[in-house]
Amino acid sequence: MLEDRATAVSSATQWPTAYPQGYAVVDVETTGLARHDRIISAAVYRLDARGEVEDHWYTLVNPERDPGPVWIHGLTTEVLQGAPLFADIAEEFAARLDGRVLVAHNAVFDWQMIAREYARAERLAPVRQRLCTIALSKELGLPLPNHKLESLAAHFGVVQQRAHHALDDARVLAEAFRPSLRAAAAGGVRLPLLECRSLTEWSDAPVPRQSSPGYGGYRQGSWRPSRKRPACPYPNPGRYEDGKPLKQGMRVAFSGDTSTERELLEDRATECGLHVASSISRLTSLLVTNDPDSGTSKVVKARQFGTPVVDEAAFGQLLRDVEPADG
Fold this sequence. Notes:
Blueprint: E1 22-30, E2 39-48, E3 53-60, H1 70-73, H2 77-81, H3 86-97, E4 101-104, H4 107-120, E5 129-132, H5 133-140, H6 149-155, H7 166-187, E6 193-195, E7 203-204, E8 221-222, E9 251-255, H8 262-271, E10 275-276, E11 286-289, H9 297-305, E12 309-310, H10 312-319
Parallel strand pairs: 1-4, 4-5, 9-10, 9-11, 11-12
Antiparallel strand pairs: 1-2, 2-3, 5-6, 7-8
């Protein structure tokens, strides 16, 4: 097993030269899962090139709104009211991310929340690549019953003390990531690194007022002023065929983590005349996913219906030459 050979990686010559020089293991707790939700606490464990802990950092963040599911994260309005705003901790947070690969469990979520907060603060997050520990565990073939953090922790004998507390979740992940990294190095496994692109198109939009003690009403930002897309004007020409170009009107669905912000990717598809679908059906022309072996409902349905599947990079190439609709 790869993890059993991890201890064999001891000398500098055995460590893969292409591996990153440092990592920032991150966990953020939030007011919810939507695009308008906010970070309420953040933790970073900085690791060196071989996964050894250098230091750690934790902060509460005042979200300027209702804290959301207190029964999960335990952070009440009263606790957060005196905390710094994200803009106040943005520089310190950036210093701990700078020059490192962001590591998180379900990294697309943490990265997108962080990127949106920096966009609100009119700054860029200094992150160029991210690594999802779910993807890494799949690359290593770890025999996990599911992809929860607690399962990964149990596999490596890491004891979790306070689930859904950013600092403890980051600690647990750092301790589980270290043997995973060593196992990958020992087996010559290519790390599943994805590109991170900062968001630069933030705009404010009014939302319904919230009644929350200590905050009163508030206005949230929105990644885009409106997410309602016009109906695709072209008929569906059918399924995509390998080796041929995409055609206007084709129904395209997306699943899983993407290196480009999902909404931007969907917008590019729409601009090219494609129909962006939120689900998979027999009419779907193509599914775009970087993890075709995942068990998501879209991937499962794509297999059942025989829907063609391509990764994000291939889809990006196809968008360069979309064939006009008939007539």
